[in-house]
Amino acid sequence: MRDDESSVLSRFRQGDMDAFEALFRTYQRSVFAWVLRIVRNPTAAEDVTVEAFWRIHQAHARFDPARGFEPWARRIATHASLDWLRRQKPENWMQPEVWQAIPAAAASDAAVNAEIREKTALAFGRLPPKLRAAALLAVVEERPHQEVAEALGITVAAAKLRVFRAVRRLRRDLSEQGIRP
Amino acid sequence: MMRDREQGRVTREQGAERTEELLRSVLQKVGDQPEVDRDLWPAMLRRFDEESLHRVSRVPWFDWALASGLVAFAAIAPRTIPVILYYL
After folding, report:
1. Total number of domains constituting chain A
2. Among A98, A131, B66, B86, whose CB has the most other CB atoms within 10 angstroms?
3. Which residues in A lie closer than 8 A to residue B21 (C-beta atoms)?
């Protein structure tokens, strides 16, 4: 099995389309899941996943089989997701399917009323995409900082700093609107 | 003075924690393995097809200019066509 995988990886590196298809079928779910954590819209996540695999295919010659396919694919998918976030207007975060429960709506916290939820979602949407992605992965999805840093292509310290700055800016924005978390 | 500074730090930390809590309550966790509704391979193949079509339109402008120049030259002086063909 291990030999099969390394053979597929080395054939992919040489530009073999069958090897690419095999990798696509193996990793499309995990890449989709990762992208969905950032873009938070299932339809957009499908498009970004395809875009990420397109970039993966284009970059096949730069792939290092020794470093593993999934972390590399995840990093490319993160950049494709960031590009998608950059193209979106902050108001798009007001669309319920983006900021409400994914995949299923859980019972909302009674202490947090609809107005605060809306204002928080909008304020979060105003954060720069890099800070938003770091906060989504580390705070909302509770992924380890190491994993977040690898996906963003930065150091662990830089990832922690991005999360810190995202929370601080969000808190400041909410305070200006009279919401004191 | 020191106590005020320490108290400020604790307040900021608590505020940050509450902001994180608020964010978690607004944006629900996606979870570990959300299911993709459909196989994305056909969409991937469509992306390859689109890209091969775009590649045609991505011919550098100077190639188009050279081709246009040759056509114009051939239209103005049709007798040069065999000469151009000879050198192609």
Report:
1. 2
2. A131
3. 181
Per-residue pLDDT of A24-71, as tens digits, reads 999 999 999 999 999 988 889 999 999 999 999 999 999 998 888 999
Mean pLDDT value of segment A84-88: 92
Last residue of a domain, one of A69, A87, A105: A87
pLDDT tens digits, one per residue of A106-150: 445 555 678 888 888 889 999 999 999 999 999 999 999 999 999
Looking at the structure, do residues A80 and A117 belong to the same domain, yes or no? no
Q: Does the beta carbon of A95 lie under 8 angstroms from any beta carbon of chain B?
A: no
Residue at which a domain ends, from A55, A87, A119: A87
Q: Do A29 and B36 touch (CB under 8 A)?
A: yes
| Same-domain pairing of A54 and A3 | yes
**What is the C-alpha to C-alpha distance for residues A117 and A138, in angstroms, rounded to an integer?**
19
Domain containing residue A94: 90-181
CB atoms within 10 A of CB A155: 13
A89 touches chain B (CB under 8 A): no
C-alpha distance from A141 to closest chain B C-alpha (Å): 5
What's the angle, vertex CA A12, arms to CA A9 and CA A14, rounded to 5? 115
Residue B36 predicted with pLDDT over 90: no
Which residues of chain B make contact with A28, given a CB cutoff of 8 A? Answer: 36, 39-41
Determine contact, residues A102/A36, Cβ cutoff 8 Å.
yes
Residue A36: closest C-alpha in chain B: B30
Helix (H, G, I), strand (E, B) or coil at B27: coil
Are A5 and A32 part of one and the same domain?
Answer: yes
On whether the CB atoms of residues A74 and A34 are closer than 8 A, the answer is: yes
For residue A75, pLDDT over 50 is answered with: yes
